[in-house]
Amino acid sequence: MTEELNPLQLEIIDSLGVPAGWEPLPREIVAGVETMLADELAPIDGLFTPEDPLRVTKHHLGTVHGCEKRFLAERSQKFAWSVPTVRGTVAHKAIELMINWPGEPVPADLVEAAITSIIENPRESASAFLETLPDHDMAELRGQVVQLVTNFGDCFPPIKPQWRPMVEYTAKYTLFSGAVIFTARMDLVLGLPGRRVIIDLKSGWIGAQHRDDLRYYALIETLRSRQAPRRLGTYSLERARLDHEEVTEGVLQAAVRRTGQGARAMAELISGTRDAEVRPGFHCRWCPLNETCEEGVRHLRTLDGDEADGDDW
Q: I want to staple 244 with a disulfide (CB 3.0 to 4.6 A). Which of 75, 142, 233, 312 is the partner?
C-alpha cells in the first residue's frame, strides 16, 4: 500500500506509526494524574453542584487563558453561527462521510451530502443556520469546504477500517460527584484505547495553543478510558502539515496544571470572587466586545497598523 502513497501521505504514516519498542504508560501514572487533577481543583470543591455544574471544555480553557473579560462576555451571549465558524463543522462531516463512502469519493459530492446531513438533523446546532443561508453565502461555503476536503484526500493517507476511525469522538469526565464536568470532542481518533492517536483538523494555520488543546483531549481520554493515548497530532488542511507529539507523563501533567489553573479561574469569575483580567491579543478579533473594549480596540488598531509606534517618529 505504501508504494501507492504520495510523499505527503507517507510523511504522515511515518509520523503516526508505532515506533519500535513503544510501551503504553503504566496504570499508576493514570492514577497519579487523576489525583493531581483533584488536588488542583480542591479549592473549588463545593462551589458547584451536579444540578448546576461547572462545565469545562477546550474552548473555555483557551478563552479564559487568553482574556478573562472575553470569557465572561462569551458566557453571557448566545453563540451565533457564521460562514467562517460553520466551515469546520461541514468539513468534519464531509471527512466522516469520506471514511465510509462507497466507491471513489468525490469532494463536491461529499460536501453536498454533509450539508444535507446537517440540515436534516435537528440535533445539529448548525442546522437552522445552513437551511436559511443565502444562495451566494452557500456557494462560497461549498467552495471553501470542497478545497479543504480535496486537500485532506490528497495529503492524508486513506483511512483503513482496521484503524477503527472515529470522527467527532466525544469523551467526558467528572469530579466531585458531577459538580465539575470536563468534555472533549475530538475531530479524528484512530486505534484502540491505550494506543489511540488523537488528531485535530485545522482549516488554517497551526499555533502553540493547538498543542495545548490536544493535551487537554489526551487528559480527558486518559481519565475516561483509564489508558493514555499514544500520540497527538494537529493537521492543517490548507498547509498539509502535521504537528505531533508523543503522550508522556510530562505531557499529561502539563495538561493537568493548565486545566486546573483555567478551571479555578473560571470558577472565580463565575462566582464573582474577583474581577476579570483584560489581556489583549490576537484573540481580540473574535471577541464580542471588540468594538467597545478600550484595550481591545487599541490592540486591534496596533495590529492593523493604524497607530504608529512612537519609535518611528
A: 233
